[in-house]
Amino acid sequence: MRVALFLSAWLVCLGVVAAPNAPATLDRNTWPEPLNSPALFDVASRAETLAFAHALLISEGLDESALKKRLGLKVINMDAIETFRQRLWQRLLANYTIALQSCDQDASFCYYVDDLSSLREQAGKFAVADDSFYVKWAEPSAEFHRRYLDEQLRMVALSPNISSEVELLGDHEFNGQNMHDRLFMLTFDSGPTSTTDWLTDYLRKQSISATFFVLGNRLQARLDKTSEQALRALYKGQCVGVQGWEYRAHSHWQPWQDSVLRSTALVKQTLAQNFVPLFRPPYGQRRADSGAFFKAQGLRVALWSIDSQDLTGSLTAEQSAHRVLSLMLLWRHGVIVFHDNQDKVRSALPWLLEATAQSGLGWEDCEVLGSP
Fold first, then answer.
1. Could you say which DSSP state residue 301 is in?
2. pLDDT at 366
3. Staple 366 to which of 67, 112, 239, 291, CB 3.0 to 4.6 Å?
4. H-type helices in the chain, by residue range?
């Protein structure tokens, strides 16, 4: 955390960036119906897709100067932004097309879309009438998607100087964007802590497996107090990857390779049955030339596509959970990241599982994430 704050402060001092806004969240209580069937999941998914597409279309009307002002940046990578926008449109088209398949069961937010041009047209016209069943959701959703889009564009605008989860640096990396529809995977960062004990027990009771990205120094501290047998019991039925020896950005830290190697060796030694060859970069930051190193070590870089932002003090556990669900509806699949050094997950995760229990989605087995 100190390194990231230092980098942010350094960039602010240089005039490159302004302090980012609080992360976006959307009160799911504004949505008027529960997601208690696959068809109703699709209704909400179509709505969030159109709302985000509308925000994306509006952003394209901003020139470079206006976009810099909106993102709070002095310098932006416009080429990267344009490329990223095109990827977003393709994902939105694919997701909306899939969500349309249940329109015979509920026609809400079903509009004729058969190509990118027609999706852009519908996005431009998208509006919720004042007398609509969904009117209480409309304005908060519009604000959520504008702010969430700004989060994404801001990260892209800072590339390649600052890496993040929105851009892959090679075929040794993934962020869950190619997973099957309605399939999600849970991941947890920065353990083990006392919350890890509760969390792994809870997941086993739900018959769900997740990938835990551990910090070497915390794993060693737990090992010093307990035993290898206790650690194996802690992570029984779960997968364990590495996040480095300590929580520091591995893009500007000189001994970053040693950090990866030390933590990997410790996990292999103590949790051989749970180990998956994955590295989760703190803050999503890693070196652009790190691919050869990770390939030589047989490691993949495991990013994420749905960020709970539970590390952020400005979001409560409820807001973090609501954010995740909104992004699940928007992206329809992907890797979700929580942090098991945060007590928020104790209430956020049960709420999320209950809210989606009848919506027809699935939770991918953790071992799949570690497969080549």
1. E
2. 95
3. 239
4. 2-13, 38-59, 64-71, 78-99, 116-125, 135-157, 194-205, 216-225, 228-234, 256-270, 291-296, 317-331, 345-355, 366-369
CA 174/CA 303 separation, integer angstroms: 6
- DSSP per position, 242-286: E--SSSS-TTS-TTHHHHHHHHHHHHHHH-TTTEEEEE--GGG--
Q: Are 46 and 92 in contact (CB under 8 A)?
A: no
| Domain range enclosing 269 | 173-369
247-280, pLDDT tens digit by residue?
999 998 999 999 999 999 999 999 999 999 999 9
Q: Which of 13-17, 86-90, 168-172, 212-216 has the lowest mean pLDDT?
A: 13-17
| CB 306, CB 329: distance < 8 Å | no
Distance CA 181, CA 55 (A): 23
User: What tens digit of pLDDT does each residue of 294-315 get?
Assistant: 999 999 999 999 999 999 889 9
Q: Are 304 and 342 members of one domain?
A: yes
- 15 has pLDDT over 50: no
- The 3-state DSSP class for residue 239 equals strand
